[in-house]
Amino acid sequence: KSGLAGGGMENLMSPAMPSMPAPPPLVRARSSAEKAATAEPIWPLPGGVAESKMGGASLGTGPPPPMPPTIRRQTTAGALANSCDNIWDYYKEVIEDCEEGQFCGIEGLAGRSCYASRLSSSDEASGDTMKRIMKELRTELPRNLELSARASMFLRFDEDKPQFMQVMLTGVEGTPYSSGCFVFDIFVPNDYPATSCLVTHTTKNAGMVSANNGPGGFSPNLHKDSGKVCLSLLGTWDGPGWDPASSSIYQVVSSILWCILGAMHPYYMEPDFGGWEGTAPADDEEHDPEVIEYDEEVYFGTAKWAILEQMKHPPEGFEEVMRAHFRTKKHVILKQIQAWAENGSEDLRARLEPVVEELQLEFRNLLTEEQAEEELRIALQEVEFVTQKMAYLRAKVDGCRAAGRDPSSEMPKALQRLGMGPRLLRRAKERVRDKTEQLEDVRRRIAAGPSPLAAVEAEAAEDVVD
């Protein structure tokens, strides 16, 4: 699914880079918890040492107390490289349970599109063009749109005028766009597919993000003021362009996701700066201050405008899936932004601090009572697990000493982890307190009913429908 349909990557690149590698396949790796479930015992006692007992169970050869699956998903989210693996299946289930889901037609999209001026009869699609549009809407698009915790594509089209579309793309995990929601308006002209579709970046407040190497915003390929999307496929960039026989709307959407919102360092995506030409330094090499400065501008822009403000004011037609996306990736998002702050400049940390505080409140507002109860249940399970694990390790260490052995040399890891136990237990109990307060807040919010602002917005929405 991550490969580009039709003309392939060669139709997207400039002549200087005719064969950029295809996006990496999205293959789900086994989590560390899954690997541990089938591993051999970590701390068997040396030969000849009597087995210790706890509750009648053998501690000498058996594995440690098993960690409940729900806790695994939460506690392993700290490893950012594997964070999306840990919620991979769960993310898809949550999105697929949404009523409108990943792909659907909606009413009124044409009227609020940035291409609304093209509603005149002169721009109505011909019979052949409409036939091609409907073919893509019925087959290629719903079959190929990416859906994963790592990156996703969501598409809406106008039920009455399907020439008008809107797509929401979630930034590729591990990039400065990670988990952000970016919106693009699409219009299919009446001579399509002889000419390409038109695409404009319309994420609200995207103009607040500025490139330091040109007129770009979130990317050198996304114009700050006009929202123009620069791709040779769209005729807005030098290089091989649109091919009526093989190019498609999906190819454009996929190019934006993987080639623009998948860039590790946006700075290099300016023409002749190395990103498209394949001459940019590798990710693990040292980068000039200008590169890091642009990275940090996008980090903040993603956190503030593509995550926080999208949570507060989701674009019409994407409300349910956007909230599901953020609710499911809550832990991933918070840890990612925390990593940006910890590894960034003092200025970035200062700018992100109030954003994180607001995000905490917005995430709490997204919770249902059932979800808040589930988070409390998981926190209580974690306390129970840490308590059992400490008893297990203490019994192992005591058994080693009773056999006349030195735990520091026979089982140093067990001794070290036993020493960490009180701190981990204290943190686990703090989480229980936090989750208890969270549940109480959710229940108070539900009892109080919708806020006056929410009631006004709901009434306004009903008036629009009427």
UniProtKB/TrEMBL annotation:
Residues 1-73 are annotated as: Disordered. GO terms for molecular function: transferase activity. Gene3D superfamilies: Ubiquitin Conjugating Enzyme (3.10.110.10). Residues 128-307 form the UBC core domain. It holds the Pfam family UQ_con. Residues 356-389 form a coiled coil. InterPro entries: UBC, UBQ-conjugating_enzyme/RWD. Keywords: Coiled coil, Transferase, Ubl conjugation pathway. SMART domains: UBCc. PANTHER family: (E3-INDEPENDENT) E2 UBIQUITIN-CONJUGATING ENZYME, BACULOVIRAL IAP REPEAT-CONTAINING PROTEIN 6. This is UBC core domain-containing protein. It comes from Rhizochromulina marina.
